[in-house]
Amino acid sequence: MLARLTASILIALSFGAAAHSHAQPLPDAPLDARLNEEVIMMPSSTGDGGLQLETTIFRPSGPGPFPLLIMNHGKQPGDPRAQGRDRFVYLSREFVRRGYAVMIPMRTGFAHSGGEYTDYGCNMTANGYLQANDIRAALDWARTQPWVDANHIIVAGQSYGGLATMAAGAADLPGVRGLINFAGGLRSDDDSCPWQSGLEAAFTTYGAHSGLPSLWFYGQNDSYFGPALAAQLRDDYVRAGGHAELVAYGPFKRDAHGLAGSQDGFAVWWPETRKFLERIGMPTEVTVAIADDVPLPASHFAALNDVEAIPYLHDGGRSAYRAFLDKETPRAFAVAPNGAWSWAEEGENPEWRALAACRASSGTPCKLYAVDDRVVWNDAPPVPANLADAAPATDSSTVDAAGAAMAKAADTVTANTLAVAARPLAPAAPTLPLQGE
To answer: Which of 36, 217, 288, 407 yields a CA-CA distance of 20 to 30 A from 192?
Structure first.
């Protein structure tokens, strides 16, 4: 097994502890009731009757059946077991708005899924096929569910999940009408591994055996798979007999590899995705009303770039805040009374991630100081609707805003630390009637 294979969504999280040295693991993100989010342990069909895959499901209200998107995650550097549960919440929300259910299975050995992660080193063809086993398991299970339209299914994936998606498409996938590949591939940081040629061989093999149409997205500033390699992989796939449309778009933020997980990615990937879905007979019109996130308002406590105005911080924390000011939005910066701090950039819910990391590293309550381009600090910061919880608020001098909203959670955190409740965040939105109904 090659331990340095990586391909993932790019997000940033940084934190600094003051006097507290017993950092705890970050809890899971809170569930979003607007999307009827639930997390299940889905049975796998790999031959191990006890193996289950941690799977996130989003879907509209009602019994269905709904068309389905199966979205597949990448691989972050390090231990796959330590990788958090992927949600692709911004992408998922857009599909739920259009009447889709969305499934995001964590594959074998990732996050809380059963089994152990394995790979075949530089044999990228085999790596893709191995991961595709779990995609087929998810498809088989989904097609037995009464809320799934078993004949209107899309399979998509980002990075390693994109490679696995294309590998899955090389075999018969009942009910699947098309594949979407967001920067699919797998890279090795080991100089002895010719991973580029391995990817070329993999896509050639998959193209020779796939009859499904596919749509590919690769950006100009993708740090993993650049434009030349993306074009080569598409050419290899098509020459072998596969059907692929490559959308080679320009630079996206700091790194186009994170397109599928970014709240700003929709404007890039939706126009061509809409055309693709229409061609293969999948719905594209909005039919479900889902409230957007409500941002924390500016408090006008200080100017955003007034580093000296931030409470609690020591010199190291003020230097970290200066670095934070150069980060991409969405972003958030949190502080603790003991001088600890954390910032989060890009990806899902940076406010929650910054607070969770700050709380875990400091052992004391943390509060948000800045979000995006505004200072939100005051004695009792309001809680945005997407973080709000029905639990009564606690004393703002001892519990931060998001901490109060997420109280009474996992066993690994004490009553005085940030906890995340596996409870709905906001009322689910009704399904809008389709025209003609």
So the answer is: 217
